[in-house]
Amino acid sequence: MIAIDTNVLVRFLTRDDPPQFQRALDLFSAERIFLPETVLLETEWVLRYAYGFSAAQVNAALRKLLGLPNVAVGDEMAVALAMDWHAGGLDFADAFHLSQAVHCREMVTFDRQFARDARQVTSPPVRLLEAQ
Fold first, then answer.
1. What is the DSSP letter of 74?
2. DSSP one-letter string for 100-126
3. Domains of the chain as residue ranges with CATH
C-alpha cells in the first residue's frame, strides 16, 4: 500500500495536467492507495477554491474515489459520516471535524454558521460559545 499526497490526488481527479494525470492514473491502476484524512481535507479545499468545484461536485468526486476497491482511508466511519453531512449541507471541514468527535459529549465553537448548520447532526451536538 502507498499513501499519496494531495497534488497527486488533485491531478487524478481534475486531469488538468495530462502527463501528471497519466502518472497518477498509473498509480491508481497498479497500487493499493491509502488516503490520509488530511489529504482528503486539503483536496476538498483545493477543488473548491482553486478549481471552483461546487460542494456537490466535490462530494460526488470524493464518493467515486472512495468507492474504488483499491482505495483505503484510516477511519472509514468518520469519512462516511463527514461525506453524508457534507452532502446534507455542512461545510466539508466542519463535517470532518465533527465526525472525528463522535465519541465526545459535544463540540464547542465560536462559528455561528457551523453551529446553525450542524443542527441536522444528532451526535455530537455543536454548541455555540458566545463571547462575553
1. S
2. TTTTSS-EEES-HHHHHHGGG--SS-E
3. 2-102 (3.40.50)
Q: pTM for the complete prediction?
A: 0.89
C-alpha cell read off for 36: 490520509
CA distance 105 to 2: 35
- In the numeric block, the cell 465526525 is attached to 99
> How buried is residue 50: exposed, middle or buried, by Cβ count under 10 Å (0-12/13-18/19+)?
exposed
The answer to whether 32 and 2 are in contact (CB under 8 A) is: yes
Q: Each residue of 14-30: pLDDT tens digit? A: 999 999 999 999 999 99
